[in-house]
What does this fold into?
Amino acid sequence: MKKLIVLVITLLVGILSIFGMTFEELYEQNLEKSSAYTQAELNLRGAQLEMNKIDKFFVPYLGISVDTMKTGIIPAGTTTVSGLVFGGEGDLEGYEISLDVNFLEVWGAQVGVSFPFTLNTDEWTIESPEASEIAISLSRDLTIIDKAERLKTESAYYDALSKYYTAQTNELITTIEDIFTRHYNEEMIQTYQDEIEILNQQYNLSTDEDEKESLEKQILTAQKNLETLRSNNAPLEYFEYTDELYNQTKETVERIINENQNYPTNIEERLDLKSLQLQEEASEI
It folds into this structure.
């Protein structure tokens, strides 16, 4: 019967380990929670958009602006509060509102649509525009992007890309360190627990008062070390630790080391230095 219970427990542990968190899942989870990574990703997207505006033929994006134009303003006694214009008697007067949407760029020219409509403040109704009032716009900055501006844009892009990869790498290192530290702590916690159990057994069996006093001090020291270790381990309990997770992490580290042993260490390939170089070139123009 005892063997059967042990077998069932072993099978359950094996099944649970299959559904346990993998290293990749924990790493992705930590990336999602990282504010530094999120900000780096947003900055990179913005820098990519600026680069695309320079280099690519077609750049889809969405930009919305709202312009309000006061209609029928009575000059005398009008008051403006937070963009709303009130008449002399405190009545809110009508507005014509234009919704302008820019949705793509073609060779640097902005393509958009203007959709004006009227807000009637007497009955609080919205009047749709006539077909002739809806306009599709095509605009282009006539200022030619000079070489210095282009270099600055490229510099900002490589800087954002460098910080994006750095944020990824930092989170990878943090995840690995957390798992290895958690493994060490779990091993030491078990060691202290075993030590305390053995010392308690020795204390209960001892008949010598001096020996019991010495054992008591050892027990207190071990208990103090155990509590300190548990306290240090608490921040790392945000993930479920398993031996399989630890083994996956070791394999990941070994794979990273093996794959990068012959990686070229050409300093010119560093993205952050490339960004600084482009910035310096732009400043010299």
Remarks:
- Confidence is low (pLDDT under 50) at residues 1-18, 69-87.
- The CA atoms of residues 66 and 99 lie 5 Å apart.
- Residues 56-143 form one domain.
